[in-house]
Amino acid sequence: MKKDINELFEFLPHRYPFLLVDRVIDLTPGESIRGIKNVTINEQFFNGHFPGHPIMPGVLIIEAMAQLSGVLAFESKNRRPADGYTYYLGGTNRTRFKRPVVPGDQLIMESKILADRRGLMKFDCRAYVEDDLACTSEIICMERKL
User: Fold this and answer.
1) pLDDT 10s digit of each residue in the chain, 146 long?
2) What pTM was estimated for this model as a whole?
3) E strands along the chain, which residues?
4) Engineering a disulfide at 111: which of 10, 69, 95, 96 sits with its beta carbon 3.0 to 4.6 angstroms away?
């Protein structure tokens, strides 16, 4: 199952400049998801991180993986923000950064469900640039009824 940017608006409440997933390229509800973030020099964070040596902030790589995990959570539970639900980033474990992500890179992200208990979901996330591992993290999301 694939989703373009317009379909992602149904799942993520984020909008520019904070929407950090451009496309879903593979999705198996209840299991896993793969998605893309195209990293361009036009991103606002590159103005200050770092002038003359732009690098995507690690916290935004984590946020991108969390957003992708949110799409997986919504699809796995057959819910949407329009139904009055949202997923918040609740925490991260074992986060490691392996290489910098720079303008022109395409961040390919993967998320797999590790646990789903009482409104908390844990995901095993990885982000790659081409075949190079850029970041790994366990991400915890909390479901909330608005």
Assistant:
1) 899 999 999 999 899 899 999 999 999 999 999 999 999 999 999 999 999 999 999 999 999 999 999 999 999 999 999 999 999 999 999 999 999 999 999 999 999 999 999 999 999 999 999 999 999 999 999 999 98
2) 0.96
3) 23-28, 32-38, 85-97, 106-117, 120-129, 132-145
4) 69
Q: Which domains occur in the chain, in start order?
A: 5-145 (3.10.129.10)
Neighbours of 93 (CB within 10 A): 9
- The single residue of 14, 23, 49, 112 carrying the catalytic annotation is 49
Record the tokens describing residue 35, joined without a space. Answer: 């998605």
Pairing of strands 132-145, 106-117: unpaired
Report the alpha-carbon distance of residue 137 to residue 133 in Å, rounded: 12
Q: Is 53 a catalytic residue?
A: no
Torsion over CA of 87, 78, 110 and 56, rounded to 10 degrees?
-40
Tokens linked to 32: 């896993």
